[in-house]
Amino acid sequence: MVENELQKIKFRGFYGNYTHALDLKNRAFAPARFKAGFTDNCFMLTKGLANCLCGYSLDEWEKITDSFSEVPFTDEEGQDFIRFYVGNVEECEMDKQGRFGISQNLREYAQLTKDLCFVGMKDHFEIWDSAKWKETNSRLDSCKDVKAQKMQTYLKPIRAVAPQ
Q1: How far is residue 51's CA from residue 89's CA, in Å, rounded to a whole number?
Q2: Residues linked to residue 53 through DSSP beta bridges, in sequence order
Q3: Are 86 and 93 in contact (CB under 8 A)?
Q4: Which helix (H) or strand (E) holds 91?
Q5: Looking at residue 1, what is its pLDDT?
Q6: Which pLDDT value is given to residue 7?
Q7: Is-contact 17 68, C-beta < 8 A?
Q8: Domains (range + CATH), the chain
Q9: Could you read off the pLDDT of 44-74 as tens digits, one per residue?
């Protein structure tokens, strides 16, 4: 996808999953559809709770970190989470080819090998080792009914009522 075509894409969030490989310099290509969500070819990358990496646009990262200011410094668990999330974040800048580096710290945490899977999560994206993502996705397939039931508690307020 050429740069002019990329600019025409209206960014609606991070969706879908895309497989890419790390090169010998531990760089990855950002999916073309995700690039439209980045400001100045930059994004923030940190450790995720599911032993994957989480990537955020600069604007979304600012919203998240602004909310952390509400956590009292006396809340030890809250402060520990901030240390985990913010203390491991890296600003990633893509080169002209759309590649960005992933540090050893983050690669080791997410157990990344050569093949990666980028997974859209609407307001952010995750980077998984491809084999680990296949395993996780298979597990999710097998329990989707239970997960869908749990989601009902979150979806009810936004679901339109059908006319009778």
Answers
A1: 14
A2: 47, 127
A3: no
A4: strand 90-93
A5: 46
A6: 52
A7: no
A8: 3-158 (3.40.1550.20)
A9: 999 999 999 999 999 999 999 999 999 999 9
